[in-house]
Amino acid sequence: MHGAKDHPSAWVARWARSIPPGETLDLACGGGRHARLLAALGHPVLAVDRDAAALALAAGPGITTQQVDLEEEDATWPFAPGRFAGIVVTNYLHRPLFAHLAQALAPDGMLVYETFAMGNERFGKPSNPAFLLAPGELLDVASRHGLRVLAYEDGSVATPRPARVQRLCAAGAAFDPATVGLEM
To answer: What is the spatial distance between Cα 156 and Cα 94, in angstroms, rounded to a whole number?
Structure first.
């Protein structure tokens, strides 16, 4: 049985239905709350985390797990360019991965990203600036890597706990909103 922390982020739930058909990466998946949502929507999911115990929780029908620590000094990005129809990242920030994420996204794929932003130190952890997005940082990432911004938010939230976050939904240049029933 999964607890209250297991509910998908409202941001991810909002955009997950618009991810084109195909394999989806849940990076730093934790216990798999988003992997389960994506699998339930029919996506084959690759759930990646460095924590074996978290991956054991994430495993399930339609979900393949892979233990890898992408922050190790000698870590190499293990995923081919254009592999994923969707990439979901929440509550995780390791800036050296931004270019890899953009490259691993299929030309018609969708990136859904949500993590803590500067100002979160008022609410608790994380409070280290290394783990907090600067104002507009996700917009800059999308622009630098040729992604089309579909939606962006930067502000404070009350649930699941008070926090300051940035949220981005961006797509590759070949993304066609009409193919997934999205009105733009």
So the answer is: 21
Give the H or E element holding residue 88: strand 84-90
The label of the residue with tokens 């054991």 reads 56
Tell me: the pLDDT tens digits for 103-140?
A: 999 999 999 999 999 999 999 899 988 999 999 999 99
Helix or strand or coil: residue 176? coil
Question: Is 109 in a helix, a strand, or coil?
Answer: strand
pTM for the whole structure: 0.93
Q: What does the pLDDT look like over 58-95, one tens digit per residue?
A: 999 999 999 999 999 888 999 999 999 999 999 999 99
For residue 20, the SS3 value is coil
- Residue 175 half-sphere exposure, CB side, CA atoms within 13 Å? 29
Q: Letter for the amino acid at 37?
A: L
Q: Is the dihedral of CA 14, 115, 152, 55 positive or negative?
A: negative
- 120 DSSP 8-state letter: G
Query: All domains of the chain, ordered by start, with CATH?
Result: 8-175 (3.40.50.150)
8 HSE (CA, 13 A, CB side): 22
Place of tokens 């008070």: 162
Order of all β-strands in the sheet with 148-157: 63-67, 45-49, 24-27, 84-90, 105-116, 163-171, 148-157
